[in-house]
Amino acid sequence: xxxxxxxxxxxxxxxxxxxxxxxxxxxxxxxxxxxxxxxxxxxxxxxxxxxxxxxxxxxxxxxxxxxxxxxxxxxxxxxxxxxxxxxxxxxxxxxxxxxxxxxxxxxxxxxxxxxxxxxxxxxxxxx
Length: 127
Ligand SMILES: [Zn+2]
Ligand SMILES: [Zn+2]
Prior knowledge:
Largest sheet: 5 strands, antiparallel
Bound molecules: zinc ion
Strand order of the largest sheet: 1-2-3-4-5
C-alpha cells in the first residue's frame, strides 16, 4: 500500500486595500495583502495548511513587507484593520517607480541614473 501525497505552496489574495503615502518611494500607493502557505495534500485533497505568512505589498513600487499572523488573520476575517508603519516588517524594497531605473538614451546610448528629461550628452528627450 502506498500513499500519494504532495506538498505544495499556495497564495491567496486577501480583500484589503489601504491607501497610503509610501515611505520608500514617496508616491501615493495602496497596501495590498496576500497570504502564502504550504499545503500538505493526500490523494490530491488538501489536508492541512501551515507556514502561513502574511505579506503586504505596496502598489506604487512593489516594496514587500510581512505582518504578524494575528494581524493577518484579522484581515483574512475581514475585520477593519489599519496598518501602521510599525506593523510592517520590511522584506525587500521595491523599485520600478518613476525615476528609479537607469535611463538610456535611444540616440547616443548615454546611460544615467539621474532623473534627466533630456540626455545630457545629446539633448535627446528621455522617457
Ligand atoms: Zn512606493
Ligand atoms: Zn543622447
